[in-house]
Amino acid sequence: MKNLWVYFSYLFPAIILVLLTPSSVAQITTSENRILFQVQKLLEYPQVLQGWNRWTNLCFLPPSPSLKIVCTNGHVTELTIIGNKSSPSSHTHKAASWTSLQTLSGRFSIDSLFKAMTKLSNLKVLSLVSLGLWGPLPAKINRFWSLEVLNISSNFIYGEIPQSITSMRNLRSLVLVDNLFNGTVPDLQRLASLEELNLGGNKLGPQFPSVGKNLVTIILRNNSIRSHIPPQLVHFDKLEVFDVSSNEFFGNIPSSLISKPSLQYLNLAANHLSGNLLVNTACGSSLKFVDISHNLLVGELPSCFGSMSSKATVLYSGNCLSTKKLNDQQHPYSYCKKEGALAVKPPGKKLKKESDSGTKVGLVLGIIGGIVVIGGLLVVLIVFIFRKSKAERLDHKMDKFVASKYSARASPRPNNGTRHIPQAMKQATLGLPPYRNFTSEEIEDATNNFDPSNLIEEGSQGQLYKGWLRDGSVVLVKCVKIKQKGLPHSIMQHIEVLPNLRHRHMVSVLGHCITTEQDHPQTTSTVFIVFEHISNVSLRDQLADGRKREMLKWPQRMAISIGIARGVQFLHTGVAPGIFGNNLKMENILLDDSLNAKVSRYNIPLYFSSYYFIFSSIPLLYPKYKLLSNTCSTNNAEKEDIYQLGVILLEVITGKQIESSSEIEELKDELERGSSETTSVLRSAIDPSLRGTYAYESMKTAVQITINCLSKVSSQRPSIEDVLWNLQYSMQVQESWTSSGNLSTKL
To answer: What mean pLDDT comes out for the span 346-373?
Structure first.
């Protein structure tokens, strides 16, 4: 009996430990355990995770300030990893130094990291802080269906915040502070549960984000927001913290913001806010901290600031306020008036036009009347000519279509090396600003002296920066250093191609700048190429987003496909010599606000001792299926472009995201069976969201040219002219059938 009691005394603590362990904490599934070890590898074994091995029970690790894993019912629900790498704000060095020392290595892939982590489908809290993550935030982040808290602060994540983040409906806290994000923040009003928004320490702007009214904390400090303080903040009844310091806010400070009952912390410092504060403004009962310093405010402080000084902090230096205190560091009144006028330029010309408009109404109406009469006559004449030419053109195309029988064989090329550029292709630059030579000062000003926060990517082919021209337009600036022997002016003959790379279906070149340093016997020249910036999403993102995908019916997808083909046609035939091997893929097809397709990351032939570079390409982004295509067509870059265009058309038709060469062959075989058998077989191979929106002959034409583009034998692939002709014919068939109202024959 005594031995039994001794045995029980040893066993009793273990029994108590089991009883006190929460039932929700358990060993996670094998797959999630494997994912966590994969995350350890993808993060390149940070110090906080170096103790893990296959015997480590990850769910029972003791929580620490740097690591916390919470498991519930066999699933990981919370993951916090805090590393020891510094952030962009802690560096004053050039981009090359912090990129190499403070980020993860060049082998790191942020896309692979989030692809793995999104498989933790029950995750509610995710914090990845100071780990040296770099790259654009992947759109697939919206696959965290259950996520409530997202904190990826103090990393080197650049680019725009993906639009897909707006579909994370359970999100309560979004913290992206101290990264390299830029551009406009997506519309976050749909995130009804969002209570905390911290985007400080980036380069976001210029608009104030569109956010929901349930926010408790809004922190946007240290960005590039140029806006008034939104008046709708008066309706944010739960707002406790509002920090927009170190931006470019202008205009008056609304009295309703200071009086807001819920507000506890208000920081408006280091902006361009101007005007008077109302002396009789009542301060909110919860207000504990106010900082309005380093603005352009004049007049007197609200009287309530003095009465709350005992219980709250009020900072107001660096303005032009009239105060009774000595040495409170205020500027003279004239300073704020002068700086305020520079901060917000009055629209003088517009006011003048409005004042003179009343005297010109009669003259304008008379001119409009004459134009209407003449325009009516011209419309009648144009309609007559258009109908006649359209009939002749359609007859010609029908003859060609019947003769080809969807064969799309490559048309013969001129053997003299010359290329005929159609007039329509020459007019494709309409709407673009004139090409120009930029000065080095303009380039430095646009990139804020090549501020690392504006660096989008860097590689062996140079750096790519985001910039803002003096007229406010956003651009991309590619920097390429060239070392050559000979005279500096000899470089000019090699950049003659740049002014020609302008087309409405390409990310066009807007201008360039060249700086030269003479270091005998070599000359080092830096070529800065300025591109237009497309702020919308890629075709891949558009089709990956369920709601946006529904907007792309067959006519819209055909218009996008034709736009891509026209961009490729321009690269092949619109410049001499033609440009081939253009890295065509879904993520490199950008869509502007009107859903016009623009080819990006194409080759730019700069010949400096056989130097040839691809605009903004990153080798790690090449898709797996490129290997198959290369084996089929080793030295035929023109046919390689046709193959890659076929892959894009394949994804447009099927709506499926292609990741491997085997998927290409499977989908291609499925389309081939569908086009040769019954309509129901073809229907099953096509994106279900397209049903009811396309004519059968239109779809079949597009399917056949896609199959031909994907031929394994490069010589059997069509020319870009044949691809474009078939796509345009498919669109004409679609339009004719739609206008006829003959819906019974549509699938």
So the answer is: 47
